[in-house]
Each structure stands twice: as C-alpha cells, then as structure tokens.
Design a protein that fits this description.
Layout: H1 20-23, H2 32-50, H3 54-62, H4 67-94, H5 98-118, H6 122-136, H7 139-151, H8 156-184, H9 189-196, H10 198-206, H11 215-218, H12 233-236, H13 240-257, H14 259-268, H15 274-303, H16 306-324, H17 330-335, H18 337-358, H19 365-394, H20 396-417, H21 424-432
C-alpha cells in the first residue's frame, strides 16, 4: 500500500496532513512525515495483532482443543500481558527511545506467531502465548505516549480518536485477509500473514522522527513548569476516581473479552473452513463501526464530557450478551457485533482521555495507563477462563448470560460512582475554538 491511509472520519481526517504550526503539537516540531508514520503504525499494528486474537480460538479448536483448554491458552496470554503491562507503562514514562520499545515488541510477537503456526501443541502454544502477551503489552502505552508527545494536550482527544479509527481500518483489512486465508488456504496461513506484516510495521515506525516526540509531554507532565518525577504505583490508589475507573475497566473487559471468542467457537461447530469466514465477518462488522465512531468519540468526549459516552459504551454490553442467546442464525449473530463496535470505539478512545485528565501535570500518564491496562487484562484473562469453563459445563447460552450480568454490574457502578473528569475550563475552551480544523493542503 502506498500514499495516505484512505479511511478517515470527519475533521480528524485532516490531522495527518497538517503542518505542525496548525496542529498545536506539544513540541512545535511534529512533521507531516511523523504524523503520517503514526497513522501507518496504528494501521499495521492492527494487522500483526489480529492474527493472535480471536482467530486463535478457532485455530486451536480446529486442532482438537476443547473449549476449556482454548480458554486456558487465551488466559495464559492474558496473564503474561497483565504481568508486563504496568512495567511497560512505567518504562514508557522513563524511556526516551519509545520507538525501540515498539520494535522489540513487534519482533517478539512475530516469533510467537511462528511458534503457534509450527507447533500447535499445548506447551509450545503456552510459550508462544506468553511471548505474545508480553510483547503486546508495550504497544498501548507507547503508541499513546508517542501520540501525546507529538501533538500535545490540545489535539490529543482528536489524535486518540484518529488512532482508533486508523487502527480499526487495519483490523478490517486484517480480518478480511485472514478470513480469506483461512478459507482458501489454511488456518495456519493466518500466522504467517502476521509475520509478513511485521516488515511494513517496522517501516512505519522508522518514519516517525524520535526528536519530534516531546518527552515531558509524552508522560503527562505540564509544559513550562518544574516537572515532577514519575510517581510510585502506590500513589495511584489514593485517587478515588482512578480506583473506580480501574474497577469498572476490570468488570467491562471481564464481560466483553470472552464474548467474541465464544461466538467464534459456537459458529465453528460443524462449519469446517467456513468458520473462519464467519469470524472474519464478525471482526469486520465490529471494526467498521469503530472506524466510523472513534473519531466522533474523540470530538464528543470534549463537547459532552467523558461520562455520558462511557455510559453508552457500558450500556450496550449487557444488551449484546443477551441478544446472543436469542438467535442461532449466523447473519443475526454477526449483525449483533455492531454493538461490540459501539462499545469498543467509545471505550478505546474515552478511557485514555479520562486517564489523561486524572494524571494531568503528574508525569505518570503512561504508568497509570499501564495500571489501567493491567486491570483490563485481569478482566479479560479471567473472562476467557471462567466463561470457557461455564460454557464447557452448561452451554453457550449460560455463558453469555453470565457475561451480560457482569456487564450490568459494571454499568451500575459507572453510573452511580464515577465522576466526570473533563475540566469545565477545557470544555469552555473547546467551544470557543472552531469545531473543525482547517483542511490540510496535500
């Protein structure tokens, strides 16, 4: 692929083509090349991560694994990510060479994909999942840090929305390609696809100029002030809104993470190679919705506030879990994935903005992001194992209803306990600025 990424959304679509003086970036030096490189990095990271996500469950099921052992394999990757996530966030706060951290993660993920493709036995897959979990943990905080360091706080909400939009576009391309590979070639071919796409991923990373990433801004410190040192993790738990966010994130991802893999396993029963096409359709449906909603979420999060959008994201999850139990039609089940896209688009953008609000001026943005992502990983890992066990013993309907009930608890906690984190002055400042950025001149 050449040129700019074609998928854009509203005013955010102009950011990658703007000059740094228009962007209001954190260090005043962010170039068009670096911003476009960040776009491509988000795009290709989606490609290399998708193959070891929901498609893994189908690959292992086709290799003779039952629901419980598939859940264990997915849990191992989740636990490895949990252990590595907070140190990865802390390292991102302290490390100037953020590009090198991503490069190491990409290479390690490729090695894990090769092991899975070559040795689909229990212990090799456990080793590979550990490697994949650890390597994937660096991508979230590091990409977000690079984004904040390039564009600064003023445009971070829109940049985060754009990151999610472009990442979802990459997921759409990856899902279609992997579905076709699984159908016309073999499930194993998907993992070689992952390895092949590490090359353009590293190329996109190299096009981001490290000198243009403001180190202080990237870790959430304020510009023009004496900057604090990165704080201890214990300091985070003194912040009540942050603790509430952590709990909500755990419950949300506990309810969410197992739904798509379980749906894939359910669709794969007696379907043979067609199951990969079903899973591809599910992933594409979700990612297309994210592509269209992510940029909108970044804009509305500043206009409306963070909490109203989060309530929407949390509210669609229990509905989705219940709907899965009401039909066995593959087209209907795939259509329900629209709700997955709504929840993922909003949570993926707005949760990061909430963390930026809560850590403003502290210098511990990436550490906090790592801790919250660890909480998310805990929820996801427990979801895969526990829900897989429930399905193995009681069936898919009870598994989905259990996950829906957890989602309802998360929604209640968010509604009654979580405060709005967007400063009123920020909202007023946003309303005083033009609602659209000037269009870039290509």
């Amino acid at each position: 692929m050449t040129g700019d990424i074609a998928i854009t959304a509203g005013p955010i679509s102009t950011i990658a083509g703007r000059s740094h003086t228009d962007m209001g970036d954190g260090n005043g030096r962010a170039s068009r090349r670096s911003l476009r490189g960040l776009d491509w990095l988000n795009f290709f990271l989606a490609d290399v991560q998708s193959g070891v996500g929901p498609f893994l469950a189908i690959y292992l099921a086709a290799s003779g694994w039952n629901e419980q052992t598939v859940g264990i394999a997915l849990t191992v990757g989740g636990i490895a990510g949990i252990i590595a996530q907070t140190p990865a966030g802390a390292l991102t706060d302290r490390l100037h060479s953020k590009r090198a951290l991503i490069a190491c993660g990409v290479i390690a993920l490729a090695v894990g994909a090769l092991i899975i493709a070559t040795f689909p036995a229990f212990w090799p897959v456990m080793v590979a999942q550990t490697l994949v979990g650890v390597s994937s943990s660096v991508f979230g905080p590091t990409v977000v840090a690079i984004s904040l360091g390039l564009v600064g706080r003023q445009f971070f909400d829109r940049r985060q929305g754009r990151n999610q939009t472009v990442n979802s576009a990459g997921n759409v391309v990856a899902a279609v390609a992997m579905g076709l590979l699984g159908y016309y070639m073999s499930n194993r071919a998907i993992f070689f696809f992952v390895v092949a796409f590490t090359i353009p991923t590293l190329g996109a990373l190299a096009s981001i100029r490290s000198a243009e990433i403001d180190y202080e801004v990237a870790r959430g410190a304020e510009e023009g002030q004496d900057q604090p040192k990165a704080s201890s993790i214990l300091t985070l738990f003194k912040d009540r809104p942050l603790v509430i966010l952590l709990i909500c994130a755990v419950l949300f991802h506990f309810a969410n993470a197992a739904m798509l893999p379980l749906l894939g396993e359910m669709l794969s029963k007696g379907q043979g190679r067609t199951s990969m096409m079903f899973m591809s359709a599910c992933v594409v449906t979700t990612q297309v919705v994210i592509t269209f909603l992510a940029a909108w979420s970044g804009i509305k999060a500043r206009q409306w506030g963070r909490k109203p959008l989060l309530l929407i994201a949390f509210g669609v999850l229990p509905i989705r879990g219940i709907l899965y139990t009401l039909t066995s039609s593959a087209p209907s089940l795939i259509a329900i994935q629209v709700l997955d896209g709504v929840g993922a688009a909003i949570f993926g953008v707005v949760s990061v903005l909430v963390i930026a609000d809560l850590t403003r001026g502290t210098g511990r943005f990436n550490l906090t992001l790592g801790v919250v992502t660890t909480a998310v990983g805990i929820g996801a890992a427990l979801s895969q194992s526990i829900a897989g066990g429930i399905v193995h013993r009681f069936g898919y309907h009870w598994g989905f209803l259990f996950l829906a009930s957890v989602a309802a608890v998360a929604l209640s906690l968010l509604w009654f306990a979580m405060p709005e984190t967007l400063d009123a002055a920020d909202q007023q400042s946003h309303r005083a600025r033009p609602s659209r950025l000037p269009r870039a001149i290509s």
